[in-house]
Amino acid sequence: MRIDIVSVMPELLTSPFQHSIMKRAQEKGLLTVVVHNLRDYGLGKHAQLDDYQYGGGAGMVMMAEPIANCIDDLKKERKYDQVIYMTPDGDRLDQAQCNHLSLFKNLIILCGHYKGIDERIREHYITKEISIGDYVLSGGELAAAVLVDALGRLLPGVLNDETSALFDSFQDNLLAPPVYTRPAEFRGWPVPEVLLSGNFKAIEDWRMEKSIERTKARRPKLLKSDES
Questions:
Q1: pLDDT number for residue 224
Q2: Cα distance between residue 6 and residue 126, in whole Å
Q3: 91 DSSP assignment
Q4: Are the beta carbons of 92 and 128 closer than 8 angstroms?
Q5: Range of the domain at 174
Q6: What is the pTM of this model?
Q7: 139 and 211 assigned to the same domain
Q8: What is the rounded average pLDDT for all residues in the chain?
Q9: What percent of the chain has pLDDT over 70?
Protein backbone atom coordinates (compact mmCIF):
# COMPACT_ATOMS: atom_id res chain seq x y z
CA MET A 1 0.00 0.00 0.00
CA ARG A 2 1.14 3.54 -0.79
CA ILE A 3 -0.21 6.54 1.14
CA ASP A 4 0.59 10.10 0.06
CA ILE A 5 -0.11 12.72 2.73
CA VAL A 6 -0.52 16.37 1.74
CA SER A 7 0.27 18.72 4.60
CA VAL A 8 0.97 22.36 5.43
CA MET A 9 3.19 21.16 8.31
CA PRO A 10 4.94 17.97 7.16
CA GLU A 11 7.37 18.10 10.09
CA LEU A 12 4.50 17.00 12.36
CA LEU A 13 4.52 13.67 10.53
CA THR A 14 8.23 12.94 10.83
CA SER A 15 8.12 10.81 13.96
CA PRO A 16 4.94 8.68 13.73
CA PHE A 17 6.18 6.58 10.82
CA GLN A 18 9.80 6.16 11.90
CA HIS A 19 9.24 3.80 14.82
CA SER A 20 7.77 0.46 15.81
CA ILE A 21 5.22 -1.28 13.57
CA MET A 22 4.99 1.49 10.95
CA LYS A 23 8.77 1.55 10.56
CA ARG A 24 8.90 -2.23 10.11
CA ALA A 25 6.03 -2.15 7.62
CA GLN A 26 7.97 0.28 5.44
CA GLU A 27 11.25 -1.62 5.81
CA LYS A 28 9.47 -4.78 4.63
CA GLY A 29 8.17 -2.91 1.58
CA LEU A 30 4.56 -3.49 2.63
CA LEU A 31 3.75 0.16 3.23
CA THR A 32 5.03 3.36 1.64
CA VAL A 33 4.22 6.68 3.27
CA VAL A 34 5.21 9.86 1.40
CA VAL A 35 4.55 13.27 2.95
CA HIS A 36 4.22 16.23 0.57
CA ASN A 37 4.75 19.82 1.67
CA LEU A 38 1.83 21.84 0.32
CA ARG A 39 3.99 24.93 0.69
CA ASP A 40 5.80 23.78 -2.48
CA TYR A 41 2.58 24.64 -4.32
CA GLY A 42 2.00 27.97 -2.60
CA LEU A 43 1.15 31.01 -4.72
CA GLY A 44 3.39 34.00 -5.32
CA LYS A 45 6.70 34.92 -3.74
CA HIS A 46 5.36 34.19 -0.26
CA ALA A 47 4.02 30.75 -1.24
CA GLN A 48 0.54 31.71 -0.06
CA LEU A 49 -1.75 28.86 0.94
CA ASP A 50 -4.69 30.55 2.68
CA ASP A 51 -6.90 33.59 2.37
CA TYR A 52 -9.86 35.34 4.02
CA GLN A 53 -13.34 33.86 3.74
CA TYR A 54 -15.77 35.24 1.21
CA GLY A 55 -18.67 36.73 3.13
CA GLY A 56 -16.52 37.51 6.15
CA GLY A 57 -16.05 35.54 9.33
CA ALA A 58 -13.22 34.49 11.61
CA GLY A 59 -10.47 32.19 10.42
CA MET A 60 -8.53 31.73 7.21
CA VAL A 61 -9.37 29.17 4.52
CA MET A 62 -6.93 26.97 2.61
CA MET A 63 -6.99 28.02 -1.04
CA ALA A 64 -8.18 25.68 -3.79
CA GLU A 65 -5.37 26.21 -6.31
CA PRO A 66 -2.38 24.88 -4.32
CA ILE A 67 -4.31 21.80 -3.21
CA ALA A 68 -5.64 21.09 -6.70
CA ASN A 69 -2.19 21.48 -8.26
CA CYS A 70 -0.62 19.10 -5.74
CA ILE A 71 -3.27 16.42 -6.18
CA ASP A 72 -3.13 16.81 -9.97
CA ASP A 73 0.63 16.19 -9.91
CA LEU A 74 0.20 13.08 -7.76
CA LYS A 75 -2.48 11.72 -10.08
CA LYS A 76 -0.13 12.06 -13.03
CA GLU A 77 2.15 9.46 -11.40
CA ARG A 78 -0.41 6.79 -10.46
CA LYS A 79 -4.09 6.03 -10.05
CA TYR A 80 -5.49 6.61 -6.56
CA ASP A 81 -8.33 4.62 -5.06
CA GLN A 82 -9.40 7.35 -2.66
CA VAL A 83 -8.60 10.99 -1.93
CA ILE A 84 -9.34 11.37 1.78
CA TYR A 85 -9.83 14.61 3.69
CA MET A 86 -9.39 14.52 7.47
CA THR A 87 -12.13 16.73 8.92
CA PRO A 88 -14.22 16.79 12.12
CA ASP A 89 -17.45 16.64 10.10
CA GLY A 90 -16.42 13.54 8.14
CA ASP A 91 -17.55 9.96 8.66
CA ARG A 92 -16.47 8.66 12.07
CA LEU A 93 -13.51 6.30 11.69
CA ASP A 94 -14.18 2.80 12.97
CA GLN A 95 -12.66 -0.65 12.57
CA ALA A 96 -14.97 -1.68 9.73
CA GLN A 97 -13.91 1.39 7.76
CA CYS A 98 -10.24 0.65 8.46
CA ASN A 99 -10.68 -2.94 7.28
CA HIS A 100 -12.23 -1.68 4.04
CA LEU A 101 -9.61 1.01 3.34
CA SER A 102 -6.74 -1.39 4.05
CA LEU A 103 -7.70 -3.31 0.90
CA PHE A 104 -6.85 -0.38 -1.38
CA LYS A 105 -3.50 0.10 -3.09
CA ASN A 106 -3.01 3.88 -3.31
CA LEU A 107 -4.48 6.60 -1.10
CA ILE A 108 -4.08 10.36 -0.79
CA ILE A 109 -4.75 11.96 2.59
CA LEU A 110 -5.24 15.73 2.74
CA CYS A 111 -4.65 17.41 6.10
CA GLY A 112 -6.76 20.49 6.75
CA HIS A 113 -5.69 23.60 8.66
CA TYR A 114 -7.06 26.97 9.72
CA LYS A 115 -10.84 27.15 9.13
CA GLY A 116 -10.71 24.32 6.60
CA ILE A 117 -10.34 24.02 2.84
CA ASP A 118 -12.15 25.72 -0.01
CA GLU A 119 -15.41 23.81 -0.50
CA ARG A 120 -14.71 23.35 -4.21
CA ILE A 121 -11.89 20.95 -3.36
CA ARG A 122 -14.29 18.90 -1.25
CA GLU A 123 -16.80 18.85 -4.08
CA HIS A 124 -14.47 18.02 -6.97
CA TYR A 125 -11.41 16.23 -5.54
CA ILE A 126 -12.25 14.57 -2.25
CA THR A 127 -13.81 11.11 -2.48
CA LYS A 128 -14.00 10.36 1.25
CA GLU A 129 -14.08 12.50 4.39
CA ILE A 130 -13.01 10.99 7.71
CA SER A 131 -13.16 12.16 11.33
CA ILE A 132 -11.36 10.46 14.21
CA GLY A 133 -13.77 11.93 16.77
CA ASP A 134 -16.14 14.72 17.69
CA TYR A 135 -13.52 17.28 18.61
CA VAL A 136 -11.28 19.74 16.77
CA LEU A 137 -7.50 19.48 16.39
CA SER A 138 -5.13 22.23 15.28
CA GLY A 139 -4.66 20.42 11.98
CA GLY A 140 -5.26 17.14 10.21
CA GLU A 141 -1.74 15.73 10.63
CA LEU A 142 -2.35 13.86 13.89
CA ALA A 143 -5.60 12.49 12.51
CA ALA A 144 -3.79 11.35 9.36
CA ALA A 145 -1.18 9.59 11.47
CA VAL A 146 -3.95 7.76 13.36
CA LEU A 147 -5.52 6.63 10.08
CA VAL A 148 -2.22 5.44 8.58
CA ASP A 149 -1.37 3.48 11.73
CA ALA A 150 -4.81 1.87 11.83
CA LEU A 151 -4.52 0.83 8.18
CA GLY A 152 -0.86 -0.17 8.15
CA ARG A 153 -1.15 -2.72 10.94
CA LEU A 154 -3.88 -4.54 8.98
CA LEU A 155 -1.67 -5.21 5.95
CA PRO A 156 -0.72 -8.89 5.60
CA GLY A 157 2.80 -9.50 6.88
CA VAL A 158 3.08 -6.29 8.92
CA LEU A 159 2.40 -7.83 12.32
CA ASN A 160 4.60 -10.69 13.46
CA ASP A 161 1.49 -12.69 14.36
CA GLU A 162 -0.82 -12.08 11.41
CA THR A 163 -3.85 -13.23 13.40
CA SER A 164 -3.25 -10.56 16.04
CA ALA A 165 -5.19 -7.82 14.27
CA LEU A 166 -8.19 -10.12 13.93
CA PHE A 167 -8.65 -10.13 17.69
CA ASP A 168 -8.27 -6.38 18.28
CA SER A 169 -11.04 -4.41 19.92
CA PHE A 170 -13.91 -3.49 17.58
CA GLN A 171 -13.44 -6.47 15.27
CA ASP A 172 -16.89 -8.11 15.21
CA ASN A 173 -18.18 -5.13 17.24
CA LEU A 174 -16.62 -6.43 20.46
CA LEU A 175 -14.01 -4.97 22.77
CA ALA A 176 -10.95 -7.14 23.35
CA PRO A 177 -10.98 -9.38 26.44
CA PRO A 178 -8.60 -8.88 29.41
CA VAL A 179 -5.02 -10.03 28.85
CA TYR A 180 -2.39 -11.28 31.31
CA THR A 181 1.29 -12.25 31.28
CA ARG A 182 3.84 -13.60 33.77
CA PRO A 183 3.99 -13.96 36.71
CA ALA A 184 0.92 -16.12 37.32
CA GLU A 185 0.42 -14.32 40.65
CA PHE A 186 1.37 -10.72 41.40
CA ARG A 187 0.84 -9.17 44.85
CA GLY A 188 -1.73 -11.85 45.58
CA TRP A 189 -3.63 -11.16 42.35
CA PRO A 190 -3.80 -14.39 40.32
CA VAL A 191 -4.27 -14.88 36.62
CA PRO A 192 -7.65 -16.52 35.87
CA GLU A 193 -7.19 -20.24 36.20
CA VAL A 194 -8.68 -21.05 32.81
CA LEU A 195 -5.82 -19.22 31.06
CA LEU A 196 -3.32 -21.57 32.70
CA SER A 197 -5.31 -24.72 31.95
CA GLY A 198 -4.02 -25.44 28.45
CA ASN A 199 -7.64 -26.10 27.41
CA PHE A 200 -7.80 -23.92 24.30
CA LYS A 201 -11.53 -24.40 23.75
CA ALA A 202 -12.24 -23.28 27.32
CA ILE A 203 -9.86 -20.33 26.90
CA GLU A 204 -11.56 -19.30 23.67
CA ASP A 205 -14.99 -19.49 25.34
CA TRP A 206 -13.72 -17.47 28.33
CA ARG A 207 -12.31 -14.77 26.07
CA MET A 208 -15.55 -14.48 24.12
CA GLU A 209 -17.56 -14.26 27.35
CA LYS A 210 -15.28 -11.55 28.73
CA SER A 211 -15.38 -9.63 25.43
CA ILE A 212 -19.16 -9.57 25.54
CA GLU A 213 -19.19 -8.60 29.24
CA ARG A 214 -16.72 -5.77 28.67
CA THR A 215 -18.59 -4.50 25.62
CA LYS A 216 -21.93 -4.53 27.48
CA ALA A 217 -20.39 -2.60 30.37
CA ARG A 218 -18.31 -0.07 28.41
CA ARG A 219 -19.68 0.23 24.87
CA PRO A 220 -23.21 -1.28 24.76
CA LYS A 221 -24.03 0.58 21.54
CA LEU A 222 -21.59 -1.69 19.69
CA LEU A 223 -23.75 -4.70 20.51
CA LYS A 224 -26.91 -2.88 19.47
CA SER A 225 -25.38 -1.95 16.11
CA ASP A 226 -24.43 -5.59 15.61
CA GLU A 227 -28.02 -6.66 16.20
CA SER A 228 -29.52 -4.09 13.84
A1: 79
A2: 13
A3: E
A4: no
A5: 169-227
A6: 0.88
A7: no
A8: 93
A9: 93
pLDDT of residue 160: 75
The vertex-96 CA angle with 90 and 98, nearest 5°, equals 70
Q: Tell whether 84 and 197 lie within a shared domain.
A: no
Residues 100 and 190 in one domain: no
Residue 42 inside a domain? The answer is: yes
pLDDT at 167: 56
Contacts of 222-228 spanning 24+ positions with Cβ under 8 A: 222/170, 222/173, 222/174, 222/175, 223/173, 223/174, 225/173, 226/172, 226/173
Give the integer Cα–Cα distance in Å for 90 and 130.
4
Instruction: Please give the pLDDT value at position 205.
Output: 97
Q: How confident is the model at residue 79 (pLDDT cuts 50, 70, 90)?
A: very high
Is the domain of 64 the same as that of 141?
Answer: yes
Sign (positive or negative) of CA dihedral 74, 128, 96, 147: positive
User: Collapsing DSSP states into helix, strand and coil, what is residue 171?
Assistant: helix
Q: What is the total count of domains within the chain?
A: 2
Clarify whether residues 38 and 142 are in a common domain.
yes
pLDDT value, residue 172: 77
CB 115 within 8 A of CB 12: no
Q: Which of 152, 178, 204 is the last residue of a domain?
A: 152
| Same domain flag for 30 and 88 | yes
